[in-house]
Fold this protein.
Amino acid sequence: MSMKLNAAEMPWMQSTAVLALFTAMPEASLRFVGGCVRNALWGEPVGDVDLACQLEPKAVITALDAASIRFVPTGIDHGTVTAVIDGTPYEITSLRRDVETDGRRATVAYTTDWAEDAQRRDLTINALYADVSGQIFDPTGQGLEDLSARKFRFVGQADERVREDYLRILRFFRFLAWYGGQEKVDAASLKACREHKAGVKSLSVERIWMEMKKLLSAPNPVRACHIMLTNGVLETVFPEANNVDGLEALVKLETREGIEPDPLLRVMAMSARDSLQIALLTKRLKMSKAESTRLRDWANDGAQLSTDMAERDKLAAIYTSGKPVIFDRARLRAAGDADPIQSVRWMGLARLASEWDIPTFPVTGKDLTQAGLPKGPAMGKALKALEALWVRSGFTTEKPQLLAALKFMGY
Ligand code: ATP
Ligand code: MG
């Protein structure tokens, strides 16, 4: 594993914004840290660029001000100032050690010692730093080694590190989900996660859900979820959604069909299609309105689906239940069907649900008034009845025929 990143090959190291930050800070007081260094060394895409700085937050702010760089004091209590350049946020965290922790928050003291800062980070692979030239620093002495072995290991005493901040349990599995292969999992780290799994419940549900969404966005989170399951962690965070076999089937389908990872769809694959369970899950995790609606609509849908339905019945189901619901249900049935031919047929329904342009019902209240119907509840009923007729015809009956049908229906 190289001790140097080739800055010339790393656009994220050389962006005007990043260079402006390094120019704004005193020489050698600023380093890249965390995910960007880790992923660059692995050759994985780099997401956000995090920085560590020897200056205390106040001095960071002074330096940014002097360089006319905009910032938000996002996490000033734990030493983070977020510089914003051209709309991109850069988290600059002052080197610190945690003086006191309660499993959720830490009281911090600032330091200029990189090694001390490394000690308060979660995993050895996340405690790697790089200077602006790409020179790597590995203060724990284990980061590079663990990186090349894909060993996910807490810095120092795993047990202590987990008790300081229970979110680390979920982060551990998130990194395993994203970057783990089939390597043996570090026993001490896993043991700490297992033994303190109940601590996860003390975290805010928003943080749990956000972390689980990141985990479930990994290309293949099956092994990590399986390890969470066998160690009782999955049950703790997702009591309503721990069917890892269902997840595995969906991931296989995603690979076969080129479906992008979709955390919500994966949650569905891990749950029973049960209104009550899903209501509990969405409430407990305080999911967003859009997320809750999607999950509930899926769980509550009453349409009968099968692969040998007539085309018009398929279209009727899509019209009545809505495109997203049938799209989700059909893909999940495709994932769950062991018969490859049936599975392909389910995907046919999914495709129909995603591609079909829902036609507009041609009859309006105005048409009925012109046809002589009085306004009122009867008109609403008549409209519904005509719409049902239109749906049953496979959306083919046109307005004149529909209006003509009115008299046979007793209006
Ligand atoms: P990515 O950004 O790809 O999700 P990351 O490792 O950069 O992964 P961030 O949440 O951006 O994760 O945090 C940046 C760094 O801050 C981490 O690499 C780690 O060193 C440290 N860190 C973040 N959260 C924690 C935590 N809960 N406990 C200890 N260290 C943490
Ligand atoms: Mg990051």
In short: Strands lie at 30-33, 50-53, 70-75, 80-85, 88-94, 96-101, 106-110, 129-130, 136-137.
